Prior knowledge:
single chain; 187 residues; alpha/beta; Lysozyme-like; five-stranded mixed β-sheet; 5 helices; 5 strands; Amidase_domain; disulfide bond
Amino acid sequence: MKHFIVFVVTVVIFVEAHETCGVIPISEWGGESSYRKQILQNPVKLVIIQHTESQECNTDDRCQTIAKGIRNYHRFEKGFDDIGPSFLIGGNGKVYEGAGWNRVGAHTKLYNNRSIGISFMGNFQNKLPTTEALQAAHSLISCGVTNMYLSEDYQLVGHQQVFSTLSPGRELQAIVKTWPHWVQTVL
């Protein structure tokens, strides 16, 4: 019986970690649950890679501070319901929930209700995110497909491909073009 209980607990922990894709919930880093209510229909067929143009971060404390600042800016300065991106990725290799997999964000005008916006914290016009951050993005996307949040045939683009912006930055855009599922034009 003892081995059975250990097995069940192990399976539950594995399933919960797998389904959440290792994402730090907004309630944990932001102090309160998301105010976003509009449901995003899954599986999503479009992933948009962005950068925040904020400062970069490499420690848990610094990344959470920057994420909170972005959230406050979006809510109180821009008048959004909550933080815009679906997810934020820090230089520490951790993924922070924004709108998440199941709620419509406010990251890319005209595409919000049919895409996931993944924003790297920092400005990547002249440099790349850390190796840990890039790996976190790949893992997040892969987990999204595994858990049917993303379609197996999803398309991936840089923010500048669908909106007049420098985001995700010249250097990050160049590497995004080499990723699986990258497309020149969204269908």
